[in-house]
Design a protein that fits this description.
The strands form two sheets. This protein has a seven-stranded antiparallel beta sheet, sandwiched between helices. By secondary structure, it is mostly beta strands. It has helices at 67-74, 139-147; strands at residues 9-11, 14-17, 20-23, 32-35, 42-46, 52-58, 78-91, 94-105, 108-119, 122-131, 150-151. It has one domain (28-148): Mog1/PsbP, alpha/beta/alpha sandwich (Protein Transport Mog1p, Chain A, 3-Layer(aba) Sandwich). Helix content is 11%, strand content 50%.
């Protein structure tokens, strides 16, 4: 696969679209089904529990907003947001903002974890949404996705 001129897609843990390519740790196919979610490059839903993992890169039109503002954009659609934890961590050699919330979506309570970082002109975000009280069930899967993240040189 040649990265330039190819359509967007995931292959062997490498996601490519015009302007950016990045590696991630992919959830196991036996448990997770890849789905299309608006404004996400990649998203997976767990086959039986409804947990959702997603990732996206925006390389144009994001300005230079602080990580806190970018995090709030990811929470549009969630109500009764209650920040439980927020900290700065390194991810792929850059500072990232890691946040955990309790919130509601369509009236249903959920545990939400979001990570945002800026690198090489792109904003990368990652999210994990779990039924309330069940985030630990697949935390290792989400952590593995993050551990595998590395932005590649621009195609």
């Amino acid at each position: 696969m040649v990265l330039t001129g190819c359509p967007s897609g995931l292959r062997d843990g490498l996601f490519s679209k015009p302007g950016v390519s990045y590696r991630i740790g992919v959830p196991p196919e036996s448990d997770w089904r890849q789905v299309g979610f608006a404004e996400n490059d990649l998203a997976w839903v767990h086959q039986t529990t409804g947990h959702v993992i997603s990732t996206n890169a925006t390389c144009d039109g994001h300005g230079d907003a602080p990580l806190e503002v970018l995090t709030q954009h990811l929470l549009f659609g969630f109500t009764e947001r209650d920040l439980k934890e927020q900290k700065l961590e390194k991810l792929d050699g850059r500072e990232s903002l890691h946040s955990r919330y309790l919130a509601k979506i369509d009236g249903v309570e959920a545990d939400i974890e979001v990570i945002v970082l800026k690198k090489n002109g792109c904003v990368h975000d990652f999210s994990y949404v779990a039924p309330l009280g069940h985030a630990d069930m697949f935390q290792a899967t989400f952590d593995s996705l993050l551990a595998g993240f590395a932005q590649e040189k621009s195609p």
